[in-house]
Amino acid sequence: MAYQLFMPSARARLHALALAVLEQSKGQVPARDLALHARLAQSGQAGSFRLRRLERRYQRRAAREAEQLNQPLEAAACYARLCEISDANSRQSIEFLMGLAKALRHAGRLDAARKAACRARRLAQRLKRTSDWARAELLLGEMEYTGSRLAQARRHAQAAQRLARATRSTELEGTAVNMIGVVTFQLGQLRRGLRIMEQAELVLRGRRNSRPTMLTSINRAVVLNDLGELARAQSILEGCVRVARRRGNGRDLGTALGNLGITFRKLGRLAQARRCYQEALDISREVGALDRISANLGNLANLDFSEGNFEQGARLVREAMAIAEELGDLSSLGLFSINLATYHIELGEYEQAKRLVLDGRELAKKARVPYYEASALNTLASIYNLTGDFARAAESAQNAARALESIGMGDTPEFCSAQGHRAIALARLGRHKEARAAAQQGLARKAGYRAMTEDPDADTRHLCQNLESIANGGRPVEIKGPARLNPRRP
């Protein structure tokens, strides 16, 4: 109360005195307190260059402290203030705008983050700071990717690649090429995405221990997982886990562990998969990586579904969906919606399951992720088979198989699964010749079918039995539900 009785100039002098005293504490006072005193000390000395310089120093330090403490909104407030008190046409302003954008993105405020990154890009263009311009394009690409706007993400990455080449920055160019590969993969072009990621590793070959090299290796393993090359994926990911532990890099460690868990699950090593998922989730929560929290919750949910813990799995999926919705991550939201249908199938609530799958398909369409759209069609085929609507089941499964073939996923477990659902439907309709041909097409895809037989999921095993039985002229065996998909977020 007494403080309010002082005139503004007297208050400013008090803050200047407090700042002088606290500066002697040798780092024991939080930087945000020093920044606050430096800011308030200026109210009576608007022209004080020394105080503005001190505030910039402490706001910068406060932003770093907030980032280390996983307080993104606190960091964003510091960067916003730094933008206010810095020369609007300086290299420093680009740095502060980029810091603001990253902090807002970390907090899930994607629209505000995008605006800050766009401001950084415009300033970099005006100042002809080509490397900063490339970094801004990459950041915008990452945000568009998180929001499932894949075409826009690819355009930003391609722009960053051109700018990086102009500055001869191999790290920036490798990061941009890696992003192009990731987007290509998410669009369903697995082999092409893998080739582009290998190009990124070639660009980064002189930077063996850099973070971009690590992320490119993880992303390559994600593709190998989907292609059923599990031994190669395991070897790469275990190497990434070792390197990330040695460096103490939490976010990269969590990403590598989450994907290693997917590999172990596909290999049937469920206890190891759960340990990986749980550690990855704990790390992601510790560092506040919302996208990874969402993916790891989805992975744990799938494991619970596979082990029959349906209530627990449904709870985890709903938690993952809430985070994906907050981030505007349409592709993951669509995938989680499809996987949540598993819970309702188990309860016999087929109409609710169908609605969830149709919602997931629409979200996949909006996100332009054809792999997830094909997965929705495949799950629909399974539901139609369970409800006796065999004509629709055959049509949905055929559309899923065609979609997968069109995006280069004709030799994958998903394609074999679609052929299995189609074969069952055709056999139930009495069209045994067509059913046998569909089953034989599934079995003919050697790599995809081998990966399918190695999947520990009971429903997937039943589907394998159906493929073999129908292909040999036998009758379909009973199948209870669809196989689950893991969130494959590079």
Describe this structure in words.
With 490 residues, the protein is mainly alpha-helical. The protein has a domain at 323-490: Tetratricopeptide repeat domain (Serine Threonine Protein Phosphatase 5, Tetratricopeptide repeat), CATH 1.25.40. It has 25 helices and no strands. Helix 13 runs antiparallel to helix 14, helix 15 (270-287) packs antiparallel against helix 16 (290-306) and helix 18 runs parallel beside helix 20. It is elongated and about 90 Å long. The mean pLDDT is 84.
Spell out the blueprint of helices and strands:
Blueprint: H1 2-5, H2 8-22, H3 31-41, H4 49-68, H5 72-85, H6 91-106, H7 110-126, H8 130-146, H9 150-167, H10 170-186, H11 190-203, H12 211-226, H13 230-247, H14 250-266, H15 270-287, H16 290-306, H17 310-327, H18 330-346, H19 350-367, H20 370-387, H21 390-406, H22 413-428, H23 432-444, H24 446-454, H25 458-471
- How would you classify the helix and strand content by structural class? mainly alpha
Number of helices: 25
CATH architecture classification name of the domain at 323-490: Alpha Horseshoe
Uncertain segments: none
What is the arithmetic mean of pLDDT? Answer: 84
The CATH superfamily of the domain at 323-490 is known as Tetratricopeptide repeat domain
Strand tally: 0
The first-level CATH class name of the domain at 323-490:
Mainly Alpha
Q: What series of H and E elements makes up the topology?
A: HHHHHHHHHHHHHHHHHHHHHHHHH
Q: Within the CATH hierarchy, at the fold level, what is the topology of the domain at 323-490?
A: Serine Threonine Protein Phosphatase 5, Tetratricopeptide repeat
What is the gyration radius calculated from CA atoms? Answer: 26 Å
Sum up the overall morphology in one term: elongated
